[in-house]
Amino acid sequence: MRPLIALLLGGLLVGGCDRQSAPPPQAKADAPVPQAGGGEELAGTLDISQRGKAAPADGFLAPDGKPVTLATFRGKPVLLNLWATWCGPCVREMPTLDAVAGRAGDKLQVLVVSQDRAGVDLGPTWAKGKFRHLEQYRDPDSKLGFAFSTGMLPTTVLFDKDGKEVWRVTGGMDWNGPRANTLLAEVTG
């Protein structure tokens, strides 16, 4: 009888190890944006494996609704951020991207390109965030998202003035934080 009990208990213990825990909940869009030096910093994953690769030729929509490509912005470094209104980390990092755009001035073009489907109103996000330096670019077909093959939002990619990738960050980032300042120093210096 004891061997049978031991076998059953052992099977329960092993079977319990096979269960995977639920994924952590996504951050709420209205959560406060972490600030440098204060609490937890959003810190996405840095990837330099595509360094030197040309920007994708896929088009997206300018704020006026006209088609545009990243080639339009050659001659100046571009910080491209792919985001969506339903993505909590995306919305949380937007104020810090707005701050980067304000600080960088003419040294860097900051493009935030919504991956929301056509018809989604970006206005409430803009009104709530009071963005002064960002414009509402759109990619309703997610062409850029597919071109970068990250499968994750937010994704932020830095291109040099010649349209070549320098690095990309997947996941949320405090763009006012020390890590981001180090990453951006080579173009905003």
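(ticket continues) Second input and output from the same batch:
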Amino acid sequence: MDTPLADRLRPKTLKDYIGQTHLLGPGMPIRRMIENKKISSMILWGPPGCGKTTIAHLIAQSIDAVFVPFSAVTSGVKEVRQVIADADQRQQFFKQNTILFIDEIHRFNKSQQDAFLPAVETGVITLIGATTENPGFEINAPLISRAHVYVLKQLTDNEMRKIVKRAIKKYPQNKFEKDAIDHIIVFANGDARSAISAIELSASMAKRVNLEIAEVTLQQKSIYYDKKGDSHYDTISAFIKSMRGNKPDATLHYLSRMIKAGEDPMFIARRMVIFAAEDVSNAQPTALVLATSTMQAVHMVGMPEAQIILAQCATYLATAKKSIASYSGLMAAMHDIETMKLDPIPLHLRNPSNKVMKEVGYGKGHVRYPWQAQQSADAKAMADKQEYLPENLKGKKYYKLD
């Protein structure tokens, strides 16, 4: 079986590596580790195809360590313990270091991750974990405290072009047209592995690779979006902030990202209902009506047509007048409830549901319809004097119009 092109193209030296200059450029942290041959355990966090595995290989080569690749998807704690036992023997008898590279380390649960701690702490292994998920959420604190966390960036178009050109050189018998190359770069979306695989497949399909071949090869744009990870939260955050900033174009962009990535349309609709109440509120009360109707319509219609309904509501909310008076007032009232003494409810506001209650003053002097009291001077004076807040909060203002 032929080795995949992505593996054959994997850089063997630092000078061949493309991207991540903030980590591997002159004087940068991982480069200095490699040059000094003093490697610490680390977590490499970044999107797919940005070069995490290659960095681990380069580190292992730099210190002549045994590189043990390990997948959190296919292996468990039993296999980890065996790797650690082998590394211990290797260190004792051959004075050779072991780099344990764990791809998708976030797939180990917290208790499974504990199995690495003693070996990392004593230096039996140098752990390099790769993850597309936020380590702060997915990796336990003791392990993070023993490892550096390095953030890898999505590859730029220029970096992707260099990688694609390098891949094309492996197929001198094929002719790749410029628009086909451009298409692969754009639709690989910063994922080098995806671009290289597209080159490999295109070359097997035709001697002359034009745009049509490239489009067939990359049936769908490589969008990294994990519904339980950072992409999910970052995109919905950008969507909401764009609506809040009265930017319908940006709103549609982030809505399209979520739709294209297969986000649950009901999740998007629920967020718009919340937004309508929190950010638009009484400045344009119909927003909540439309958002609620949107949620019902999305539920009834389903995708793909529901995307039209989501777009209508999103652009309405993005262009609507905004007010957080209700939300701010609620938060201020909640704060007082949590931090202040709760004085009794005024007697005149209480319901006199029996004779005893009436005798002690429940409901006494209460003006039920203050707006009608304006017809009588005495009734108006009583209505104006009527207090609704507890004694210690008299005159407190929560609802302040923007």
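Agent notes: Residues 42 and 148 are 4 Å apart (CA to CA). The chain has 21 helices and seven strands. Closing as not reproducible unless the customer responds.
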